[in-house]
Amino acid sequence: MPTAPTTADAGARVSEKPLPPGTLGLPFLGETLSFLRDPVAFLEERARAHGPVFKTRILGDRVVCLVGPEAVAHFYDERYFQRRGGSPPHFKQLFGELAVVFKDDAAHRRTRRLMAQTFSPEALLGYRETVDRVVARHVARWASAGEVRGVDELGALCFAVANSLFGGADPDADDPRAAALFDTFVRGLLALPISLPGTTWS
After folding, report:
1. What is the pLDDT of residues 161-198, one digit of tens each?
2. Helix H or strand E encompassing 167
3. 73 pLDDT band (50/70/90 cuts)?
4. CA distance 173 to 45
5. Are 56 and 23 within 8 A, CB to CB?
């Protein structure tokens, strides 16, 4: 009687498949510097050159990048993706071992079910008053400022909403300490994981 394929079997099959188009760049360093300089431009330029699924090398690892909703949809299909071992090791230091991005199979599905309750229609209706208060506060500030940098302000708005809903912050006031910590976290994701004094990662 045939047995169901295991994760190891799937990994072996995947390792035999050819990589998508793209370039790996220099040995070890690859295209790390271009990626760190401007991740959005990096992804856009290479997607135009190679298509929405392409290969590169970042931080010494060969990486397959997915750009756009159709490409990213495959990431959520367990037939194609194994998350365990698929992220740079320093991501675990930032997210923690139990984060959903490191789980597969039943553990991944269970965590996603729990998280989905946070974004059910009923839950979203309950967030409306808080979101309205945060948005109104930011819009009033933009109006009085005359000119603002959109990407920064929209990022601050999104963080303020999330911080109020899930971090318990006051929706009627800024939380600069939490915002600074989140900014440090994001810069850590895009930093070379070199733990020496003076480095972004450190």
Report:
1. 999 999 999 999 999 999 999 998 888 887 878 888 88
2. helix 150-167
3. confident
4. 39
5. yes
